[in-house]
Sequence to fold (970 residues):
Amino acid sequence: MTAYIIRRALQFVLVFFGATALIFAMVFAIPGDPIRALAGERPMPETVRQELVQRYNLDKPLPEQYFLYMQGVFQGDLGQSFNGREVTEIIKERFPRTARLAIYAFVIEVILGIIAGVIAGIRKDKFLDTLVKVSTVAVISIPIFVLGFIAQLWVGVDLGWLPVTAGNPPTFRGYLLPSIVLASVSLAYVARLTRTSVVENLRADYVRTARAKGLSRSRVIGVHTFRNSLIPVVTYLGIDLGSLMGGAIVTETIFNIPGIGRAVFEATRSQEGAVVVGIVTLLVIIYAVSNLIVDVLYAVLDPRIRYD
Amino acid sequence: MTDETLTERQRELERLREHELPPTEHDDELPSPTARAAKPASLWSDAWKELRKKPIFLISAALILLMIVMAIAPQLFTSIDPFAPGTCTLGNSLGTPSAENWFGYDLQGCDYYSRTIYGARTSVSMGIVVMLFASIIAVTLGSIAGYYGGWIDAIIARLADIWFAIPIILAGIVFLNALGERGFWQVALVLIVFGWPTMLRLMRSSVLSVKEADFVQAARALGASDFRIITRHILPNGITPVIVYGTISVGVVIAAEATLSFLGVGLQLPAISWGLMISTAQNRILTAPHLLFFPGIFLSVTVFSFILMGDALRDALDPKLR
Amino acid sequence: MTQTQASPEEAGPAGQHLLEVRDLEVEFRMRMGTVKASDRVSYHVDAGETLAIVGESGSGKTVSAQAIMGIIDTPPGFVTGGEILYRGRDLLKMDERSRRKIRGENVSMIFQDALTALNPVFTVGWQIAEMFRKHRGTSKSMAKLRAVELLEMVGIPSAKQRVDAYPHEFSGGMRQRAMIAMALALDPDVLIADEPTTALDVTVQAQIMDLLARLREDLGMGLILITHDLGVVAEVADRVSVMYAGRIVENADAADLYPRPGHPYTKGLMESLARPDDKGGRLRPIQGSPPDLLHRPSGCSFHPRCRYAQPLCTEEDPPLIDIGEGRSSACHFAREILDE
Fold:
């Protein structure tokens, strides 16, 4: 177990520096003017330009730029917007909303997804299974922004069940629809994965053993199948955080939630490159950390891994 | 780091990714590497025999064909060229669908039907171009990593880890936002650059399983060169999962392009793209829902077809299911 | 460990077997067609004796055992006929709850590959303790103590520590011992062992077979040993049933079977067996391969591989008939084979 965690931690360090370097390179090392990447097309007095050069050490060689940038990141400096607002300030203000949205979505996706998947898996090839299979492919195929608009039009306007936008400040009811939309695609994946995994595990030798032990059906499924079936699902949930982040940008935009996703969107619209880079760097770090956590959790769920 | 270049979890993940879209029928059995390593010719002809009878495959193939024809020759479907000057009349702005103009008009008064038809070109070519380039990278690196193993494998696997750590939409936002002019190739580039790691992992594990097969050992014993062993023996037998995932990924790429365009970091006007059309329409969905509806339907159906096709292929190419 | 708790009133009338399978029919319904995996299969086992069921893989020897345990995957497998009598009561007519009680408490089973048969995510001790906790309602700590006792009984060293280990931390032989401990937890009357040594090294195989034989004796259970290995059978079995293509083709006492097999298939199996006493003698494997049950040969299923086959064999399926000395054989020429 310890060896496994150490190995994963080392991998994490590599991925952390690699991924931040990659983001850094996309902004500062591509052919063209990094100032443009940071500031867009806006006309700029020479003094501001100089300031940017100073701030991002653009006059120094690339590796040093990266080093200084990362030094800043470690000190909690993710850059500044044009009106001089710290990116960390923006994040501090907006992150709680995104976190709420993401947590609601995560809860919906995990609970509904696993329930749907388990039911479909136990009733393989029956009506409910077919229903789950068909509806999940459909949901997966509809891009999230289309889904978001459909939900707004249908649930929000036609049925009038839930508010069309989250409101300012967003209310719980306001969060519901965007959370469901954000959760939907991942929910479909979770359901399908759980289903496949349950179907596979129900055939496993150890489930047969559990039946031969004279255990009740609920125990055979609930204990001997369920935990094993969760292993791939947990794995997926780690990866899924990445798509949840991309999805949050879209969802917050559509439902007008002033979270960091919308901040990214607004920053791209107003050509605040520095803000985009700062926030994305943070998101990538969060993603990497949560994947590390998932890996550890994976080891807890699956004892075979601990001695790998 | 040890020789073990992939953690157990990552391996699990690859397997899942290959299977994460369970097909419409029996998806409970995984292709066994040894079974997969059977004669490829018969595998494909058997698969074809099976596919011909599958309604899911036929429907998705027909839809994909339709979209491809639409992409190559949109003139067959509409006499209006949306790129020609003077096709839009502001007087028609936001005109709703009618018997003459099925899809209505957009804000500029352009015929929405012809724009939607022409949108297929962007999506379909984006999907196919990205899939082709990403799989070339993935298959090459994956074969090298899987075949040679050791430090080459370790380096390639770690590189893939790093790329994998950046969600594709975030990468697209940062990279495309840094560019001034964004056209087809810029968007394609970012999707290729961030699209190969998944396929690489599939290819790598597939090569690993085929590598040990008897016929590969035999070829090696007979003194075949590495290049020949890889291209003649390993690739034909190991590429199946990449083909399956590649098909699905065409759909995923199309959706990703649309999302980036929707977010304003993808294609730019005057390009015609379904994502861009929806993005333009987003403030008017209440008054003119047709602006959302038609590109939305086309987009979803296209993505749907590629995903279903991938599912059907996986079913048919999985020898264990027979 | 106490002796089997067969109280007098539970014991059936004379002539009733501890466990008896009568004319069991099991079908597997698949896309390609329906396969009869168990065709009129009958056998029985009594307390303290070992019945060996012998056959190649695919002969249906495991299917009847799974039917006894009620663990056939349905679909595709369906029990379509026959009776499974435990102390005279037909398991197939019982409701699920009573049947479940019998599984594990009265009849239990061990499997070929203990690595896959034990749940990888729970400790060995937990899995054994589960028997006490769920069937007997024993407390967690008591159940664990009992698990340690059982591990000691099956010869696992330092059982106190090993009880908290996971299956993958055990060696192959240890895992099979743990599996046996789990199966014997509730003092069953009948133990079904499905190829218990196939996945093990030769040296470990002997240890496991010795353990099973010893436990059968100590606990007075009936043992149904399913195997393809006639060598193992010779050492431990009292009676033998040979299966081929879903049917029993020969029944005999183990002592009688070896010198004089009564079915060409049994004879073939014997000849394909290497014996230490005829060094240099040639092994004669049975020609051909087991039949595809979807396309069963006409007449006797074995005729395409049989060197005694006559035209009659391609036309008529021989019934399992009594050939004296308490033996039976499903061959038109059983007596000739026997006297050869």
In short: Chains B and C do not touch (no CB pair under 8 Å). Chain B has a mean pLDDT of 75. The two ends of chain B are 41 Å apart (CA to CA). Residues 172 and 190 of chain B are 6 Å apart (CA to CA).
